[in-house]
Here is the input.
Amino acid sequence: MESAKSAAALVEPCQTNSARRLTEDDSLRVSVLSEALPYIQRFSGRRIVIKYGGAAMAHANLQEAVFRDLALLVSVGVEPVVVHGGGPEINQWLERLEIPAQFRDGLRVTDADTMDVVEMVLVGRVNKQIVNGLNQLGAKAVGLSGSDGSLVEARPWGDGSHGLVGDVARVNTDVLEPILAKGYVPVISSVAATAEGCSHNINADTVAGEIAAALEAEKLILLTDTPGILQDRDDPSSLVHQLRLSEARQLIAEGVVNGGMTPKTECCIRALAQGVGAAHIIDGRVPHALLLEVFTDAGIGTMVVGRS
Here is the structure.
């Protein structure tokens, strides 16, 4: 009997100390996991295409947060596909090589020398940095460009006045299907070749939207440097949390959506019109923005849906 009392005396303080170590952060973490459960169940086995760029790519702490978000998505059965740009690093290399950077209508004017740098940076450097970051966290990643396996076929954009700037003519999902089926994460740079084999620089938002449509993805998510679509561009509290396809078109027509947000919104509209379940514009400057948007009730950015 005495030994039993001694054992109880040893156990009770341990239990008390353990309970005392629980914090509000622990309770919040459990609450968030509980809130995420229905979303995890809903999106397990579904495909989500994520355009990765902006500040989330430029700052080490945000990079780490995005990689962890992607690794977690994989671990709960989501099939993410990552499409990336890399404008700031392209500009740095152009400056090193004394090649002037030119922009017109918001697009990079891409001559042959600039195209060489774009391809070198996006395919050779940025793509592998993302792949390595994901691999280190256990999310098996495979680096691709639009040119690999003719994944994306390019066509010249506009009248050719922007040089080797392209649009998406076709997406060959046969390249991605076996990669996704084996549990790998495709990481795709937005460089692709025409049917004649000429490399073109394509806007990463456009590539992400067209790949999402071709894969019949559940979601298209654009990581940006803004909170989302704002009623007043100078007031972050005017964020539009959700709107229908028709309402997104109306905001463009009224000029509420303007500047750099216009092509992003149009990208969402095209993806939804081609069958993507929902399109999201979220703030990549917020750590773990991906998980906040996908796995919480409130979300963090703007979600555009095809119907009410």
